[in-house]
Automatic annotation (TrEMBL):
It comes from bacterium (Candidatus Ratteibacteria) CG01_land_8_20_14_3_00_40_19. The keyword GTP-binding does not apply. NCBIfam families: transpos_IS66. This is Transposase IS66 central domain-containing protein. Residues 371-411 form a coiled coil. Residues 74-115 are annotated as: Disordered. InterPro entries: Transposase-related (IPR052344), Transposase_IS66_central (IPR004291). Transmembrane segments: none annotated. Pfam families: DDE_Tnp_IS66. Keywords: Coiled coil. It comes from the Bacteria.
Length: 491
């Protein structure tokens, strides 16, 4: 009798536990291990992601804060810049530059005697390369003279012989002609640096390049500054003398412009006239105390200025407001409101009154009028100003100009009272500041107050020498080598 044996399978044991068909015949334990690993990695990534999100939010807040701070600083900087520099204005297009049509041309005057002569001969034609024959007799040659410069660096030895002074009981030595004691640079090297920096406005760094690359003289910016210090110190007595003469002058054309020192706002002031000279001073303030420091607290002459309010507090014998500034403001007002009949009428009448005064002054210079005629004309013009400014303007800017005319009513036609010494504009002072304005654009002012003071001294001496008909080179050379003097005429 056959006996069957039944074996029951264990449901907990999978026959394919090493290669599960549902897992791509992968080992289930391996798959489970990978699952646990990936779950752990996902948790780590979520933590990292959340931290990154928090960091990005924090950085975005910081960026927003920095942007606000940057915008505030930019606005502050723009305000400071507006205080220092006048805004650029688009000028109306002028005519074609250059001489007018039909103007006779001019050329440089030829040197009378050449320093050297080269005789230029030919053997072959420069065109066909063939042999040539020299032409003899009249018109057998042509001359071409060109001017050039010689760049030579030379060294000078000053051998000092010693002498015994029986009176002083000491050994003495002299100073050679053109010698600067304790200076390894000669007078011309110092002079050219002064002219480059103060007369032309070249920054020290560029001067250093010129000396090294062109003259073959290796210098540093520090050396150039030291040279300027010595020259400026020698010029201080002249600067002080000039200041006294300006304070005692009959008229002073005064103005100011921005002059940064190490990026901070400062002001370059000018006072003077064409007969005595130009005095410059750099100060961190733009107020009446600076003007009083230049002209004195009781200036007896006529002070010609623009309508800047600080000048209102300065005491002077008389004052003249710059008519060019008033005309410029009037022109701008007319340009802004071309369709406002009230503004147009005001500007036209004001223009006629001011030009009537200017024409009186010109005709007096031509001998057409006497001083009495000018005084009568001045009274008539002031009455016209009174009539023009009697009615309040609706336009705010026109009203501001009307009030300014009322405030300076007695200072508009002063030039008709003193026609021989006072000009109706402050153009002289603006011209005297122009070279420094150009220098400011290249050098951005000075880095130190000491450098600014040197600039004021050197510019005062150079501009005054030019106004007195002297060559600034001669003045600076006399400062470098000896005892200079500026003889200003009595004004």
């Amino acid at each position: 009798m056959n006996q069957e044996v039944t074996i029951e399978a264990n449901p907990k044991i999978c026959p394919n536990k090493r290669a599960c068909p549902y897992l791509g015949f992968e080992d289930p334990e391996k798959v489970l291990a990978e699952r646990d690993y990936l779950r752990a990695r996902v948790d780590e990534m979520e933590i990292t992601f959340n931290l990154a999100i928090e960091k990005i939010k924090s950085q975005n807040k910081e960026i927003a804060s920095l942007k606000e701070e940057n915008a505030a600083l930019k606005a502050e900087k723009d305000q400071e810049r507006k205080k220092i520099y006048k805004p650029a204005k688009k000028e109306e297009k002028q005519g074609k530059p250059g001489a007018p049509f039909g103007h006779p041309g001019t050329t440089r005057e030829k040197p009378k005697e050449p320093d050297r002569t080269f005789r230029v001969h030919l053997k072959n034609c420069p065109h066909c390369k063939g042999r040539v024959k020299r032409i003899h007799g009249e018109n057998s040659f042509s001359d071409h003279i060109q001017e050039d410069i010689i760049i030579i660096k030379f060294n000078t030895l000053f051998r000092h012989y010693k002498y015994w002074c029986p009176k002083c009981k000491r050994i003495v030595q002299g100073i050679g002609e053109g010698e600067i004691p304790r200076s390894y640079l000669g007078p011309n090297a110092i002079l050219i640096s002064n002219l480059f920096h103060y007369k032309i406005g070249i920054p020290y760094g560029k001067i250093e390049d010129i000396y090294t690359d062109i003259f073959g003289l290796s210098l540093t910016t520090g050396t150039l500054i030291d040279m300027d210090k010595k020259v400026a110190e020698k010029g201080i007595p002249l600067y002080t003398e000039l200041e006294k003469k300006i304070r005692n002058s009959s008229v002073s054309y005064t103005d100011e412009t921005g002059w940064p020192i190490n990026g901070d706002p400062n002001w370059l002031w000018h006072a003077g006239n064409k007969d005595i000279g130009s005095l410059y001073k750099i100060d961190k303030h733009r107020n009446h105390e600076v003007a009083e420091g230049i002209l004195g607290k009781d200036y007896q002459g006529v002070m010609v200025t623009d309508c800047f309010s600080a000048y209102n507090l300065v005491k002077a014998g008389a004052k003249q407001k710059c008519l060019a500034h008033i005309l410029r403001d009037m022109k701008e007002l007319n340009h802004l409101y071309p369709n406002d009949p009230e503004v147009i009428a005001f500007c036209v009448n004001l223009d006629n009154i001011l030009h009537e005064g200017l024409d009186l002054h010109k005709d007096y210079k031509k001998g057409k009028y006497t001083l009495d005629d000018l005084q009568q004309g001045k009274q008539d013009l002031e009455k016209k100003i009174d009539a023009l400014t009697r009615i309040k303007m609706i336009n705010k800017k026109a009203e501001a100009l009307r009030k300014r005319l009322i405030r300076h009513r007695s200072e508009i036609f002063t030039f008709l009272t003193y026609p021989d010494i006072v000009e109706p504009t402050n153009n002289f002072s603006e011209r005297q500041l122009r070279s420094s304005v150009i220098s400011r654009k290249l050098s951005f002012g000075n880095k130190t107050k000491a450098g600014a003071d040197r600039h004021a001294v050197m510019m005062s001496l150079i501009q005054t020498a030019k106004l007195q008909g002297k060559d600034p080179k001669d003045l600076l050379l006399s400062l470098i080598l000896g005892s200079p003097e500026i003889r200003a005429p009595t004004f």
